[in-house]
């Protein structure tokens, strides 16, 4: 389960294209995470990932290569005390507990870095692995919105999991 969270680097481009260009990953992501995941999209993503101070989007490095990503996205307006969590991991590394521990690390970082009281994630009802990782990391299911999302020609449930800052 050894991994490191670190900023994305231009040298991660080949790994990002290799691992992100997978329909099994794209099916659990929003359409902003395209399939096919081209080199051009990867360049844009790496530029976006490095555009925030403090850092918000991290590479998940496994065995010396960028094998996934995780980000915390503070919200604005009346949602300003919230941040959304998003993540993905290359299929060869699934089932090792990496995502659960990466979530724990980013939650700790998020509460230490940003003026927020709640971090939420919105997995699809079909993404059982993500739901389990969130639960193992201390997230609680706050809501289920039936048949709300439309992805790849089908309606999916949207789940909202959250964890709150401890006093």
UniProtKB/TrEMBL annotation:
Pfam family membership, one: Acetyltransf_3
N-acetyltransferase domain location: 3-166
PANTHER family per the UniProt record, alphabetical: ACETYLTRANSFERASE-RELATED (PTHR43328), N-ACETYLTRANSFERASE DOMAIN-CONTAINING PROTEIN (PTHR43328:SF1)
Protein's recorded name: GNAT family N-acetyltransferase
């Amino acid at each position: 389960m050894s991994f490191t969270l670190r900023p994305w680097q231009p040298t991660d481009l080949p790994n990002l294209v290799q691992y992100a260009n997978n329909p099994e990953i794209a099916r659990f992501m929003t359409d902003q995470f395209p399939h096919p995941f081209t080199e051009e999209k990867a360049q844009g993503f790496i530029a976006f990932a490095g555009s925030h101070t403090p850092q918000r989007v991290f590479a998940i490095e496994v065995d010396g290569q960028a094998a996934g990503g995780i980000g915390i996205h503070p919200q604005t307006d009346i949602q300003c005390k919230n941040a959304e969590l998003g993540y993905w991991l290359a299929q060869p590394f699934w089932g090792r507990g990496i995502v659960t521990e990466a979530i724990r690390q980013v939650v700790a970082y998020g509460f230490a870095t940003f003026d927020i009281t709640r971090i939420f994630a919105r997995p699809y009802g079909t993404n059982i692995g993500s739901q389990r990782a969130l639960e193992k990391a201390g997230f609680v299911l706050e809501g289920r919105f039936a048949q709300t999302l439309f992805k790849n020609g089908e309606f999916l449930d949207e789940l909202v999991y959250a964890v709150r800052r401890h006093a």
